[in-house]
Amino acid sequence: MGRAPCCDKANVKRGPWSPVEDAILRSYMEAQGGAAGNWIALPKKAGLRRCGKSCRLRWLNYLRPNIRHGNFTEEEDNIIIQLYNQIGSRWSVIASQLSGRTDNDVKNYWNTKLKKRLSLPNSNGDTASSSTWMIDYNCQVFQQLPALEARPEMEMLSNLPMPSIDYGPGLMVQAGPSPNIRSIIDLGSASNSWVSNESLSINWSIHSPYSFGVAESSRPTSVSCSQGAAGGHGWTDLGFGSSWNNIINDLPSNYEEVLEISAPNALAVASPKGV
DNA sequence: AAGTACCTCAACCGCAACCCG
DNA sequence: CCGGGTTGCGGTTGAGGTACT
User: Fold this and answer.
1) Which of A34, A103, A110, A272 lies 20 to 30 Å from A135, alpha-carbon distance?
2) Residue A243 belongs to some domain of the structure
3) A36 touches strand C (CB under 7 A)
């Protein structure tokens, strides 16, 4: 024997709600002070040919006072993204942090807008939709170069909890902001290596008002790795090698350069030179 | 203008948690 | 404690709208 149906499906109306039905439900709920009591019994009491669950959903997601639809603000975006990274798809919890938003709205907004905006590259290595992150050598994270396209993710990233690991003088690495973002870079160590626990390729360029001792053409501009284990912690050392060391060592003392990094996943950084 | 593809979001479904006798 | 009824939640669907060809 299967589960008992919550209502008599043959005798209830389904599909979009009509204005008349909305008015009946709204009127009933207002008369009850906004408390439905028993949702299963509500349709009969209110005079609606609807399933109780449908009434509940309609009220909570649409008719209830102070509901806001659409036009999510940047601040709301940030909260949703941050909470999603922390607790996953617990939409009701996320919605509870946003005034007037319903879990259904937040869920739809995530699935149709935010997820796409933050989408990772496909398996072909197409990074057209990937994130590009910028850092500077002073750990002032996520500065934006004027010439580059607007990347609202950057603002978001700086607000996310990013576990940092201090490996000692001159070397600090920060993991990415979500379980899906685990790439790590360090710029201050002796080896100056990228480490990552996933297959990826990285391209970068340096934007600097200063000249370097290393010719532009000899600077490394890309590196790739496959997933592997290194140092017993499952990370792959991408190894920039000596040429990268030269770049670091040749930086002026009061540098303000920004390193732009394009990678499949978000990255965080780095330690000031000489620290 | 017509056909098609894509997008959005309200609504539905089923499951798990909760409530209560 | 148990079991049935109810509620809350997250995943999914599909109608309607819009963009594209």
Assistant:
1) A110
2) yes
3) yes
Same domain, A82 and A29: no
Q: Which burial class, exposed, middle or buried, applies to A206 when counting CB atoms under 10 A from its CB (0-12, 13-18, 19+)?
A: middle
Q: What is the pTM of this model?
A: 0.54
A104 touches strand C (CB under 7 A): yes
**pLDDT, tens digit (0-9, with 9 covering 90-100), for A179-194:** 222 222 333 222 323 3
Nucleotides of B under 7 A from a protein CB: 7-15
- Do residue A196 and residue A254 come from a single domain? yes
Helix ranges (DSSP H) in A2-131: 19-31, 42-46, 52-58, 74-87, 91-96, 103-109, 115-117
Is A138 exposed, middle or buried (CB count within 10 Å of its CB: 0-12, 13-18, 19+)?
A: middle
Does residue A95 fall inside a structural domain?
yes
- Assess whether A53 (CB) lies less than 7 A from strand C: yes
- pLDDT tens for A118-143 read 543 333 333 322 222 333 222 222 22
